[in-house]
């Protein structure tokens, strides 16, 4: 494996050990994955330069730790008589960011530089972490390579960056990093998706004042210096009335078995009723700590909050209680502190710039569905599904999206289209704004409407729309 290492800007200098670590890690990947005759270029840089690259190529306005640019096969012409070389592409590693993360995670810069190199090399070889199965596979490959390098997370050599820092008393040292999974459950329409979107800082889960808006379990990742919290935003738990409802409840209840703690979100403006009791009955079977999150406290008088909390705590022994307003961002720091107290010590499972496992096509479809639900109000029940048929980037970097809105009745199709297409145009205009913010590109959105009679009770159509019995 030929590893070509350079610095940019050129005036930057780094310890030779950093360079040796990167070279050894890249060569080990080449040896283990049968690309020992390959070639990779590695640029060691600072936060400022990798920030520029992120903004230019990924629409991310902040520095990250490593970028991978795979070389398309067509970009490198074959030369007759030359030995065959597999040119993999380029890696860009922010050494400044690696030093920061090593300090945050409490391990050596040596370990962090090697890990980032391995992570980037696996991307060049085609590994990814957008889907859950792919993430698990990639993490296993990373562990395997690091073991072969003989570098563990407990590696203590050079735990500090080269800069000299004063010794701190043991009691003042930074707490160990925490990470874990948190289920967000509750009756439909209590603000679960609003809460998750507000915490993450970006719209991932769609929001509507109609119940049962979220249909799939959505994983959202919040990365902070001391912890990485993976929120699982679930469909609202309710008594199902059709096969789609059965799938949604199964997805929500299945999540409770996989997490470190549970946020039970309730609406402060609504009385504790059969819907909440239905959920509390199911929580009796879990051994996970359950935190009661009383949302929308900005909509009630302060003196009414304590009786609401007392009513809930008389029905279930909660591990903690946190009143909040997700929409007004009230007491969210207090909620995060409570959540972190139940997280185990652990590594950062996902890259710091990853905020969801949902592919862009699915998020786009959900944004269109959100606007249709919002604009049609009570005229259309939850008979709407959206499927993205085509999503391509044009030569001018504009994105063309063709999506189909499915309904169950011809009368519903007429409502979605509206007089002379007015409703469909309005749905498209509102959805396009959110999609452009998501993708960072100008979007041409081509919407169609079709009828699939009683699709919510037809297993085959449900599977085509991404619902099923796997959970």
TrEMBL record:
Binds 1 zinc ion. Keywords: Cell membrane, Cytoplasm, Endonuclease, GTP-binding, Hydrolase, Membrane, Metal-binding, Nuclease, Nucleotide-binding, Ribosome biogenesis, RNA-binding, rRNA processing, rRNA-binding, Zinc. Its main location: cytoplasm. Its cofactor is Zn(2+). Residues 376-453 form the KH type-2 domain. Zn(2+) binds at residues 119, 123, 129. GO terms for cellular component: cytosol; plasma membrane. It is a peripheral membrane protein. Residues 178-345 form the Era-type G domain. Its EC number is 3.1.-.-. Residues 324-326 are annotated as: G5. Gene3D superfamilies: 3.30.300.20, Metalloproteases ('zincins'), catalytic domain, P-loop containing nucleotide triphosphate hydrolases. One of its GO terms (molecular function) is metalloendopeptidase activity. Residues 295-298 are annotated as: G4. Residues 152-163 have a biased composition (Basic and acidic residues). The keyword Nuclease applies. The keyword Glycosyltransferase does not apply. Residues 212-216 are annotated as: G2. GTP binds at residues 186-193, 233-237, 295-298. It is found in: Cytoplasm; Cell membrane. Monomer. Belongs to the TRAFAC class TrmE-Era-EngA-EngB-Septin-like GTPase superfamily. Era GTPase family. Belongs to the endoribonuclease YbeY family. This is Multifunctional fusion protein.
